[in-house]
Every structure is written in C-alpha cells, then in structure tokens.
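Before surveying the methods themselves, let us examine one representative protein, pairing a chain with its fold in token form.
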Amino acid sequence: MTLPVASFLTDLDFIRVLYIVAFSLFIIGMQRLTKPSTARQGNMIAAVGMAIAVVATLLIPSVGDYGLIALGIAIGTIVGVPAARQVKMTAMPQMVALFNGVGGGAVALISWAEYRHYLGHGGNPELDTLIPILFAAIIGSISFWGSNIAFGKLQEVIPGKPITVPGQQVVNALLLLAAVAAAIAIATGSESEGLFILILVAAAVLGNMVVLPIGGADMPVVISLLNALTGLSAAAAGIALDNTALIVGGIIVGASGTILTKLMAEAMNRSIPNIVAGGFGGGGTAPSSGGDNEGKTAKSTDAADVAIQLAYASRVVVAPGYGMAVAQAQHTVRELADELEKRGVQVLYAIHPVAGRMPGHMNVLLAEADVPYDALKEMDEINPEFPQVDVTLVIGANDVTNPAARTDEGSPIYGMPILDVDKSGQVIVLKRSMNTGFAGIDNPLFYNENTALLFGDAKASVADVLAEIKDV
C-alpha cells in the first residue's frame, strides 16, 4: 500500500535523511571554503544545506505555530538581506560580530523557552536534556553580549582601548561562579525559572566584562573565539532538541572557530587565555613616539617619486592593512598592479593573518577586486623573499609591519610575528597621518633610511601614483 504524500513527508525516517543530506552539504561547503577559488561555491552549497535543514525541521509533526515562524522568517529576511547587501567591506567585521552574536542570543532564548516548556509539563527534563540546555544558555548568552561589545569596539561606539574595572578578574570569576552554581542547583533538582534567569543574566554580564578589557588589536582573535562559542552553544541546543543538523552544524562551527582562534593567537605569538585576560590593543589615535624614535624624522615623498621607483622595479610587494579597507583602495591597487605587470614588474601581496579587523579581512578585500589568488602570499611564505624585493608598498598597515615586535622587549607587541617589510630595498608607506595603529604604539619602520611616507587617502594616493606611472 502506497503511503500518502503528506504521511511520507512527515515520516521521521525521511526527515532524518534530509538532515543527513543537509549536514553533508555543510561539510562539503566547509571543505570548499578552504580555497579562495572555491569559497563562493562553498558558501552556496552550505546555504542549500541550511535550506534543506530548515524544511526538514518544519516537516516535524510536533512543530506548530507556522504563522509565527513565517513572521520570524519574514522579519529576519527584511532585516538581514538589505543589511548584508549594503554593508561596506570596511564594516564587514562589525557585521560578522553582530550576526554571530544574534546566533548566540537565539540559542540562549531557545534554551530558556525549552526550560519553560518542561517546567510547564511536569518539571525539569532528564539530565541528558537538561545539561545541554544549561550549557547552551550560559555559552549562548556570553557569546551574544560579548559579540555586542566586539561590534561596539569595531564600530567605534565604544572605545577600542581596553576598558577595565577594579578587581576585573575577581569580578569575572564571581560571575562565572554564579552562573555555574545556579546551573548546578537546577541540575541537582531545583525547579526554578528564577535560577535560570540568573544564569542568563550572570552570563550576559560576564560576556560584557570579558570583552571590554580586550583592545582593538586583538579583535580578530576575539571574533573567532566568539564564533566558536556560538557554534558550541548551537550544538548543545541541538542535543537538547534532538536536532541532528543543528548538532552537526554547531560542532562544525565550534571546531573550525576553535582551530582558527588557535591559529590567530599563534600568529600573534600569544596565548588565548592571555588575550581573554586582557588584550594589548589600545585603539589609540594620537601620535606616540619614544625610545629609539625620539627626535627622528620620517621622510615624506610624493606620487611622482613613488611612480618612478615602482616603474623601474623588478619585484614589488603590496602589504595591505585596515587603512586600505577604510579607503576602499583595493580596486585601485589592482589597477596599479595591472599597469606594473604590463611593464614586466612582478607584483605580490603580503597577507598577515591578523591584518584588518577579522580573520581573512585582506583576502576578502583583494578577492573582491579580482586579485589573482596565486599572488596572495601568507606571512610565512613571503617573509623569506623580502630581501629580494625592490619596493614594498605598505597600504594602511601599521602594527603588523612594526619591527619593534622583533627587537623591543618593552613593546606590548614584542614577540608577535610581523611582515618583514623593513628588509626590502625600499619601503613606501601610505598613511593618512602619523597616527598610531590599533596597538596604540609608534612604528620605528617609518624612520628607517629606506622608508618614505606618502601621506593622504590611500585610494587617492594610489590613483595619483597610477597616473604618474602612465606618464613615465
């Protein structure tokens, strides 16, 4: 006897098959994201997987309130699509932080709703459901509020410099203890929505208190860490809801975010606990000089002189930073590179792992300008080649090119691996002014004999150099 279509679609085995297809697409999409040339395709594959997972969830017979669900989807679409389409590349880190926070907040609210549901139907659920609910509530709330602070720092509505309170670590420990103690009380038999709300509030304050003392220079690591926390909380929620796709998707995000956080921390030669305990980034904007730079003067140059140096070079390396993103100079940089390559000049791009304000920020910017993927060189690959480079063009990068990280034990960035641009034959630095970078410290690179600074908006400066090269 053939089952009716409606019965087949709501069959749990069919739904499980859809979930298997969905998380398989998640994994394939993630694998495709490992290469810039296939990243766009990977995004699309993972998006299809998510669409299948949503449909599978809606097919579950116990799911109700379809009108409310449709309203939520409509509101999310109306808000999310225009925001994602209109966001500038300079604001992409803020968007990532905000969207990641929304995910953590959603998990925390789902946990609260599930706990209320069980309380209304006889009391606490079994421990195999209750523990994931409690875990998701704590981690989701921390991720939501921490991501909001990260967004505020990146958007500069909150100062980028570390913000601390007296007894910061003691306060954080007490907040964590309060959240865990309330969770233990519930897990050992207390049936109290008040205790659950205490968990959410303590975790929320903790999320704020953990990220506030972290400075701007550590934001790429913080964003990655919060992303991992959101993934872990989503996986826990999936266990509580017995949702296979949510479990697998959350684990993928949590695992990949954890690995990326570790790699980013290693790129800065710092430990994750050290970053969480309080970052060094200051977000300062005022000039700061001292030590060996006291009394030194940076040499300025003009577009005509830079054009001559570039036009007659054999190898040129572009070292981009957040200043390039602010000026939206990536397309003009690509035009400059094209013109140089027509003249037989080899042009490469030196990518520091934490250049910009989020992991991969420079890669995304340059990919947007259709820069060839094989021209992008990671720090470990390009550093040995700098002594053979004729001219390095540093565009808006500061802390990731600061030689003090190698030599000055008193510097807050001492030990952080940097791009060895100072070893090039000539270094041209494009900056708006002598203001410091996110770490709030001066850069001795600017005072080297082989360094000259071209002041002004990066996009306008590159355009001026390009016009001069065409006249050479």
User: Anything to note?
Assistant: The CA atoms of residues 175 and 202 lie 5 Å apart. Confidence is low (pLDDT under 50) at residues 279-290. The longest strand covers residues 315-320.
